[in-house]
Amino acid sequence: MSNHITITGKVGQEPELRYTASGMAILNFSVADTYGKDEKKKTTWHDITVFNKLAENVANTIGKGSTVIIVGRYEQEEFTKKDGTKGKGFKIIADEVGASCRWNAWVQDNSGAVMQQIGQVFPSSREVLVDEEPF
To answer: Are 9 and 34 in contact (CB under 8 A)?
Structure first.
């Protein structure tokens, strides 16, 4: 039996990146999976957890409202409710996270980040303007 799942949906809130005491990155966010039409439209919310380098990459790539594709596995978790009783829920541990281009083209402008990295590698270099000729 396999518990793998693939979902597509919209990110519900800004992903929250944190680090454990040992330095492992953990990213948490929710995804709304909506299906059906009109009065039969339904939305299922999924809690997503991403670990390590993938967590950092996702945190730098997606945000609230992004349409994403998640491939992962279900994991059951137990928690204590506000009234002190025990509850159970499910979350998805993501193995892959990607942008969906079904409804929107995916455009990512990394020019600022690239220029910052160039400045770190070549600290004496001057800032290059986009309109400047390279020669």
So the answer is: yes
Enter the pTM of the model. Answer: 0.70
Count of Cβ atoms closer than 10 Å to residue 6 Cβ: 10
Distance CA 92, CA 95 (A): 9
Residues 6+ positions from 75 with CB-CB distance below 8 Å: 3, 90, 91, 92, 93
Report which of 74, 29, 66 is spatially closest to residue 50, judged by C-alpha positions: 29
Domains of the chain in sequence order: 4-106 (2.40.50.140)
CA atoms lying within 13 Å on the CB side of residue 120 = 6
Percent of the chain with pLDDT over 70: 75
